[in-house]
Amino acid sequence: MNTIAWIGLVVIVAAAAFSLGAMFTKKKFKQDELEQQANEAKADLEQFRQDVADHLDNTRKLVSRMQDNYTQLLNQVEETNQLLLSDKQVISSDPFFSKETTEQLQASLKKRPERRSDRSNATSQPTDFVEGKSGIFSGNSSENEQIKIS
Fold first, then answer.
1. What is the separation, in whole angstroms, between the first and last Cα of the chain?
2. What are the two backbone dihedrals, phi and then psi, of residue 145, each rounded to the nearest 5 degrees?
3. CB-based contacts of 78-83 (< 8 A; 24+ apart in sequence)
4. Spatial CB neighbours of 133, under 8 Å, sequence gap ≥ 6
5. From CA 106, how far away is CA 64, in angstroms rounded?
6. Residues 28-45: pLDDT tens digits?
7. pTM exceeds cut of 0.90
8. Are the C-beta atoms of residues 55 and 47 closer than 8 Å to each other?
9. pLDDT tens, position by position, 69-109
10. Are 150 and 142 spatial neighbours (Cβ–Cβ below 8 Å)?
């Protein structure tokens, strides 16, 4: 029995060693797995921080470009405004017609007779109307009827 006791004791110790080894191995495996997940999470966090830093840098560059474009736009508007103001002063000093034409127009205005100065403007006809009878209203009514018939 001595041998059977020794074999039983070896089997019991082997079973206990196996179960203790498996238990420590599982804990070590879980610990390694958790460590790996923590390292992946740290790497993801570092990548996210880098992405955010890149995004903020790109945003800063875009805002800087936008400010430059806005400054250029303001300068362009100011230059255009100055050009328009300076052109306005130059154009106002130049006459529309030549000197000779202006003199002829002024002379013809002076020679023009004053018409209907005795009538008030409210009752006078516009200047494009003819005084008296004209066109189909001039002449005999029989002639007007013959014109209508033909």
1. 154
2. -70, -40
3. none
4. 139
5. 60
6. 778 888 889 999 999 999
7. no
8. no
9. 999 999 999 998 888 888 655 555 566 778 888 888 888 88
10. no
What was the pLDDT predicted at 57? 96
The residue whose two tokens read 């955010």 is 52
Sole residue written with tokens 């060693």: 17
CB 97 within 8 A of CB 105: yes
* Identity of the residue numbered 28: K
> What does the block give as tokens for 56?
């903020």
93 close to 100: Cβ distance less than 8 angstroms? no
Helices (H), the chain: 2-93, 99-111, 141-149
Instruction: Give 46: exposed, middle or buried? Use CB within 10 Å, 0-12, 13-18, 19+.
Output: exposed
Please report the pLDDT score of residue 142 as a whole number.
58
| Tokens 């050009």 belong to residue | 83
